[in-house]
Amino acid sequence: MFCVERSDGQETWIKEQCFKTEFKAFINARIQSLSTYGLYRVTYQSTGDSGEV
User: Fold this and answer.
1) Can you give the pTM of this predicted structure?
2) pLDDT of residue 12
3) Could you tell me which residues are beta bridge partners of residue 13?
4) Is 14 exposed, middle or buried (0-12, 13-18, 19+ CB in 10 A)?
5) Which residues contact 4 (CB under 8 A, 6 or more apart)?
């Protein structure tokens, strides 16, 4: 599961949405970033493993 997270400006990331594919998550993060001028990232999350993509 690939999740899109938004930065609140204070080193805290807020989870927005999750997608089954990295491509869909990346496109969503890119669109959100361009429309809000915010900082977004895509993270990978599985049952016991997580990390920034």
Assistant:
1) 0.79
2) 92
3) 7
4) exposed
5) 15, 16, 17, 18, 19, 25, 28, 29, 32, 40, 41, 42
CB contact set of 38 (below 8 Å; sequence gap of 6+): 6, 7, 32
Alpha-carbon separation of residue 30 from 6, 20, 21, 22, 39 (angstroms): 11, 16, 14, 12, 9
Q: Are 28 and 35 in contact (CB under 8 A)?
A: no
pLDDT tens for 3-29 read 999 998 888 999 999 999 999 999 999
CB 49 within 8 A of CB 1: no
Instruction: Give the tokens for residue 34.
Output: 């361009």
Q: Could you give the CA distance from residue 18 to residue 23 in angstroms, rounded to a whole number?
A: 12
